[in-house]
Amino acid sequence: MLTPLTLALALAATDAVGEGSAATSTPPSAASNSTVASALSPGRLTLARTDAQDEYGWEGGADDEEHAPRLFLTAWGGEAFDLGSGEKHSGSAFGGEVSYALGFGDLGVWGSAYKIRNGGKDWAPVALLRLTNRFQTRRGLEAAFTFGVGAGRPTDWRVWFQVALGLRLDLGPMFLAGELSFEQDQLLRLSGGLGVKL
User: Fold this and answer.
1) Which domain holds residue 42?
2) CB of 192 within 8 A of CB of 164?
3) Is the pLDDT of residue 34 over 60?
4) Rounded Cα distance, 110 and 95, in Å
């Protein structure tokens, strides 16, 4: 005589399989055990969990891509080295950057001042339009290659070019950055930055 639990499992298995499975030669207890075992198999549970993750955007789905930060604000500070003159002057370098992430890279506006004018006594303003390509490295850092073009005024206004290599470490909504740039008039700049992602 079947126990009430076995009978309930047998009826549930019959409903799940369909009308045709009720008329099988296998005893109800064996049929219910095999149906329950197949329904609870690790493969089916994993597949069901994967479908749920894809449906609701878990595990880096489309929703994460749509809501990824696109605007980056960075404050820079460091030292600029004038390698063109024989005396090799150096001076402080401060600036800021606003950039926006696009499909081909980060496009930003850079404004800064280097204390290299008049032998390091006065500030030289520099304004650039910069394009940055970032690459993920193995240690969780992002490497960056930047090209900038604009204008600078060490003595008078002139076209200013910049090529920079950098690293960025993400800290949640903020990040730390470092940059080494080669610029117009044989200028070398070494800077550190603190930024926020919006």
Assistant:
1) 4-65
2) no
3) no
4) 7
Residues 97 and 177 in one domain: yes
Which tokens in the block code for residue 97? Answer: 């950057």
* Contact (CB, 8 A) for 122 and 99: no
d(CA 156, CA 168) in angstroms, rounded, equals 33
Residue labelled with tokens 């193995």: 138
Q: Is 142 exposed, middle or buried (0-12, 13-18, 19+ CB in 10 A)?
A: middle
125, 32: one domain? no
Q: What is the 3-state secondary structure (H, E, C) of the chain?
A: CCCHHHHHHHHHHHHHHCHHHHCCCCCHHHHHHHHHHHHCCHHHHHHHHHHHHHHHCCCCCHHHHHCCCCEEEEEEEEEEEECCCCCCCEEEEEEEEEEEEECCEEEEEEEEEEEEECCCCEEEEEEEEEEEEEEECCCCCEEEEEEEEEEECCCCCEEEEEEEEEEEEEECCEEEEEEEEEECCCEEEEEEEEEEEC
* Total domains in the fold of the chain: 2
Rounded to two decimals, the pTM is 0.64
Query: Any residues with CB less than 8 A from the CB of 198 and at least 6 apart, and which?
Result: 69, 70, 71, 72, 73
12 and 58 part of one domain: yes
pLDDT at 116: 83
Check pLDDT > 90 for residue 45.
no
